[in-house]
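User: Sequence recovery, please. Input:
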């Protein structure tokens, strides 16, 4: 399932959508007049209907712009204000609004399971969306209580994780959060970060053809994936998610749309129309765990150089798959990860690979069974929070991707310094960072090495004149992505 639950989308604030919200509310009130004074006051009832209508119209608009549907829970049990993981709205009022949508013939439905229905805009609502077009819009901030999430996994009587689905994913559930000063501070910081993110336009600089290609790539189910993905450009607010029922495990920032696209396409992201650069921590998990165990790896040391024959550093083709293997080992708290297939890893057997890893990082190897991966994620989430706060307070938009960050390219040196300083402050150790490339639309689908080879032959390849500013984008009004940025530019001039 790719569809997001309707209340997981942000509520957009646009005059064009507000007109539709008012029309929907009028239909609800016509269909469900209150003839007695029992229950909520008219003022509270109308306020609830307005919130629900705005939430449904916004979710339908976002899903329409993303060629997707919306998941709508049917059962009353899915609705409970104050219960973690539930829809924080009245089931009665929400279902009445849903019926009003059907009466207006504004939605079509497709049943998937008894628990929920999938819906999408149709009729007059779809026509209204087409008139509006795919535009950037301001949005309401997430409710404070939803900014920090605590999860755990379901276990059987023997304590083993319960798994389900084709890919045997661990079953998770959302826990109630304790009321602590620490949680309040995390919420405060995330409110500030989200308030800053919603002031800016985070989009893509792609032709309509390449944008369609990206959407198709995201929507194609690959082996090992349980869900399709969609491109929700309005989904920019972050949520901090902790794991295993502990506030010292996990804690990374999720739900920014830029985190869901393949790494190869990130150089096409634009912030307020400006090109971006991605800077990545080098071997952050290994360095965090080592530092916590009293071993400080020098910044110049490649933590993934474990002694494989003829190692070529950052250019070695084995580095990326080796990184995935090592991170999988670090996060294998149940000890059921198969290191590599029977053919081995580039001629190295699983047994030999383990020995090389153990010899190079003995303190990390000793802690593999301790759930150290999620503990190191908590530390890197602390680093990410601090980096974002520092950058935003300096007036620089900063997008997190766990152990890397995106900023407008003119600020990459500042970001590099902040990342190194923050790692040192939290871990008492040094670290190096890797800087990615910037790509134009013409370089879509090319790997970093392929772009660099082209630039060797022709230094002009991939160059954006005027630093990829608004003036550059203004010349390509036929692009859907440009129109999205233009709508933000018009809004920003009024602020």
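Assistant: Recovered sequence (495 residues):
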């Amino acid at each position: 399932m790719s569809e997001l639950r309707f209340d997981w989308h942000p509520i957009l604030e646009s005059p064009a959508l507000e007109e539709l919200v008012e029309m929907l509310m009028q239909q609800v009130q016509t269909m469900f007049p209150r003839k007695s004074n029992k229950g909520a006051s008219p003022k509270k009832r109308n306020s609830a209907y307005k919130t629900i209508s705005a939430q449904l119209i916004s979710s339908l608009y976002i899903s329409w712009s993303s060629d997707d549907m919306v998941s709508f829970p049917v059962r009353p049990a899915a609705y409970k204000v104050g219960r973690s993981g539930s829809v924080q709205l009245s089931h009665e009022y929400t279902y009445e609004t849903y019926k009003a949508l059907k009466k207006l013939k504004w939605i079509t439905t497709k049943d998937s399971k008894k628990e929920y229905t999938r819906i999408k805009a149709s009729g007059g609502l779809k026509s209204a969306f087409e008139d509006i077009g795919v535009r950037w819009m301001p949005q309401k901030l997430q409710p404070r209580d939803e900014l920090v999430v605590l999860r755990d996994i379901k276990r059987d009587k023997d304590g083993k994780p319960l798994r389900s689905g084709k890919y045997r994913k661990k079953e998770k559930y959302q826990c109630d959060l304790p009321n602590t000063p620490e949680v309040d501070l995390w919420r405060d910081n995330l409110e500030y970060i989200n308030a800053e993110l919603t002031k800016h336009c985070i989009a893509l600089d792609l032709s309509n053809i390449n944008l369609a290609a990206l959407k198709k790539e995201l929507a194609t189910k690959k082996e090992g994936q349980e869900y399709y993905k969609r491109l929700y450009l309005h989904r920019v607010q972050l949520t901090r998610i902790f794991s295993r029922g502990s506030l010292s495990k996990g804690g990374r920032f999720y739900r920014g749309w830029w985190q869901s696209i393949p790494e190869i396409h990130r150089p096409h992201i634009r912030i307020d129309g400006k090109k971006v650069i991605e800077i990545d921590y080098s071997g952050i998990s290994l360095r965090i765990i080592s530092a916590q165990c009293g071993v400080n790896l020098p910044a110049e040391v490649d933590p993934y150089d474990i002694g494989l024959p003829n190692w070529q550093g950052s250019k070695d083709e084995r580095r990326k798959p080796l990184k995935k293997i090592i991170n999988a080992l670090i996060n294998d708290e149940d000890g059921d990860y198969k290191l590599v297939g029977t053919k081995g890893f580039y001629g190295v057997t699983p047994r030999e690979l383990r020995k090389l890893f153990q010899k190079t990082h003995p303190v990390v190897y000793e802690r593999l069974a301790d759930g150290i991966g999620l503990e190191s994620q908590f530390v890197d989430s602390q680093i990410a929070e601090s980096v974002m706060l520092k950058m935003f307070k300096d007036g620089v938009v900063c997008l997190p991707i766990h152990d890397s960050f995106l900023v407008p390219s003119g600020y990459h040196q500042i970001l590099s310094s902040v990342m190194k300083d923050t790692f040192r402050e939290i871990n008492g150790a040094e670290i190096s960072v890797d800087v990615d490339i910037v790509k134009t639309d013409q370089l879509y689908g090319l790997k970093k090495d392929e772009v660099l080879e082209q630039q060797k032959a022709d230094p002009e390849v991939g160059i954006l004149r005027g630093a990829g500013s608004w003036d550059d984008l203004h010349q390509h009004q036929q692009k859907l992505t440009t129109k999205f940025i233009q709508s933000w530019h018009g809004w920003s001039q009024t602020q």
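Confidence is low (pLDDT under 50) at residues 463-477.
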